[in-house]
Amino acid sequence: MQRLGELWRRLKFIFRRGKFQRELQEEMQFHLEMKARTLRDAGMAPGEAGPAAQRRFGNTLLLRETSREAWGWNLLETILQDVRYGFRQLRRNPGFTLVAVLTLALGIGANTAVFTLMDAVMLKSLPVTDPQQLYSLGADDNCCQMTGMQGNFTIYSYPLYRYFQEHNPQFSQLAAFQAGAMSVAVRRSRGAEAAQPYRGEFVSGNYFQMFGISAYAGRLLTPSDDRADAPPAAVMSYRVWQQRYGADPGVIGSTFVINSMVFTLAGVTPPRFFGDRLTGDPPDFWLPIGTEPVLNGPISILREPGEFWLYLTGRVKPSVPVAGLQAQLTAELQHWLRTLPKLDEGDRKDISQQRIILSPGGAGVTELRDQYASGLRLLTVLAGLVLLIACANLANLLLAKGSAARVQMAARIALGATRARLMRQILTESMLLAVLGGAAGVAVAFLATRMILLLAFRGALYVPIDATPSLPVLAFAFALSLLTGFLFGVAPAWVSSRSQPAEALHGATRSTRDRSALPQKSLVALQAALSLVLLAGAGLLTRSLLNLQSQQFGFQTRGRYIVRVDPSLAGYTMQRLPGLYRQLRTQLAAIPGVLSVAYSGYSPMRGENWSSQISVGGRSEEGYKNEFLPWVSKTPSWVRVSPHYFETVGTRLLRGRVITEQDTPSSKRVAVVNETFSRRFFPVQDPLGKHFGIGDNTHNRDFEIVGVVEDTKYQDARQPAYATFFLPFLQQIPRGDESDQNAVDGSNYLHDVELLVAGRPQNLESQVRRVLVAIDPNLTVLSMTTFDEQVARNFNQDRLLARLTGLFGLLALTLASVGLYGVTAYNVARRTNEIGIRMALGADRNNVLGMVLRGAIGQVLIGLVIGIPIALAAGRALSSQLFGVKGYDAGVLAAAVVVLAACAAVAGLLPARRAASIDPMQALRAE
Amino acid sequence: MMGRTEIPPGTLYLLILKTLEAGPRHGYGIAERIQQLSDDVLTVEEGSLYPALQRMLIKGWVVGEWRQSDNNRRARYYRLTLAGRKQLGLELSEFQKVMAAITRVIQTA
């Protein structure tokens, strides 16, 4: 009770500080007067009584201070005082404040932007219930669709999923969802709207239950939607519902045609939910896995035990040990694999090495995380470096300012201010600057994040990362600001508070020695060193990006367009494909400006890769091992291509012939192979006329090699081209096992149409769309880009890194130059007097110019000496990110040194010329 | 002015509280009263009187009231509160205990 009253009285005090001050003053005035009167009464002369009373009383100001301190708000009050004083200081130097706040805004903004990405990509969990209970089966980044052994199993078939579901009650829910991205064509049943391309994903009925997500509107899928006899139901993303259908409640429960199959829209997901992984263009529609056979028709893979295409994620019941579950799953996997009806000997041997690793699934499928982890770490370091340089710069500015205010500081110390108090006041000023800079930095970060997202997700229509700063991001920015303020404020505060009153008060401007000179110069050297590191890094990454983009891919991109189409979405059966292909070729070729039309299962650098084992001369070819992709690349890649394909994509024929109109389903089965294939499988013999089979070795004479083309990169731009063979469309691949037939038939569906055009035809895209709609209203152009763009999208991350490092490097260079200029200019101003004397004693302008320049260049030289080894080490650390350029590229390093030296020369020359133009008479008279 | 004696540490509160027991006084009055009652032996330094009064205000032992003084000037009068009276009792008994103990030590030693 007592304490509470005390607290209340103390609190009241802060709000009545003014009144308190007045009252205390009045009280003491009264006291003094009373005392003086008493002294007068005792016989003292009236003129002496007042001063005597005052002497007895002591320092009224000090007494008021101590009385005030009793209330315990002393610290707060002095802080407020310092803050007010700080604001006054900042207002008095608007130029300095502007430069400082801008510098900080850039530095803090860059860091906050990188942190926003870090937070979204690396730290955040999916917006689902209890994400820490979720585990993914598998820890590799295998994707999409494959057969055969995986080593670390990551993707699974539907029968295998059901097997796990039945045998593992440790999961309260085990859900399956499609690994690869799928395009769907969607339109409402009623109305005449044309089908639009969207992202779709097959998910098991318990998918949303597993995540603990409930519907925003309507209902989500349930296990009963999975049954074959269930009416087809689909779930729409909140985004599509909002943007496409204006959040119309009438949409829910209405019917949609998805890929020519009618679905009822069951409901809408919550706004924050973006599916099972953070990716550009997340799914817009979720479809029950049970509808896959109908939707995919002839190419359905739901019932195929050996077709792996699903990711599995489960909610593990509390108190289930994960290690035990992992061992059990591995044992079950091996047991199940042994029951697979058709498995070749090689795979069978490997079964005992197959295993399942349970990895935390709360962040969803972490392909983005894996993809960007190293890049983001690098960006964090870079942004940190930029901030360090900014700090060094500000510290320098403050030091210069502090030196200018040396006399003032000395006066304050002489008047009794403590050094601690002075340091605190200067630190407060830098903290204020930092917080202002941080606030501006948040705005910079917002813009920068959006820019980075655009760079990182080039080609995506929508990225589920919010650039708006969240609470953790704001907290980060604030903490960073305070740290920054301390970092750049502490040295100037220390130096200023050390000023010797006596030394400073007499002849302040005459001394040639300056306490702040050494820290200032070391800061400039540090800035130069860091700038060099950033510039060299930017140079390496840019070189690498250029190498990646301008390498010999084995195709030409100029004048080429890629149109993504999927006839299976429009319900085409195998029988109708020949007619469609004929129409496509003739009608697209009729568009003015189109020189050549081709189509293929997939086009180069689209990110797709099909591979199959082949057999040559009666033995199964293990192919080759690739240390990066041990399980995938054992087998050669292949793709079906149309006539004129190679000329359309610009791949040169080296020997034999290409695939032509004469290669029909009924003609001899032929294949064109690339150089690597030829070298790999026919190292000594002539490959032309040789035969190979696909799949089991009883068919080893199925395909005759009729041509060899140059190596072409299809998937990984950093790897040598894979051994690849090309087959004509619609020629059957005979295989022993019928169960795989659907997947093989799927290869007969084109996914990409390639166009070679002359110049830049007007309205090409709308003309292409018109042709497709004329052929079949359900044929949707999923996307259309230039071939250049398709290739460029492969290097989003490299481009992001190169651009940002370049940007950071430029920023660092600017800051360092400004820093050098500032210090040199300040020194010239300070030494005006000295220079005047030198010139009066006979030094000529060149001597002065040289003296000033030597000082500036000396600092940069020290920076280079420090920076070059760091740049070399950084290059080494970068080397895994680089393509076609070593971490210690002499040219890049030399260029960075030259750029830095040039900037330093300019930054030093300007003040040096000013020094040289000093008029000795004036300089001396000014004193 | 010679022979001025500092107030023993820890007893300032007691002296102020005791002075105010008879009725409200202003700061100068308190100092005067203590000096007068102690026959000019004890002098209250202004430098400790006013901070002490502030601390007593915080503790709630006294409250300050502005009134007309005898010579028609506005002055802050300090009045003992109930908590102040209680505190006076406490301080008194504490002081007497210490005093008695010190006396015993001095006499026997």
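The two ends of chain B are 34 Å apart (CA to CA).
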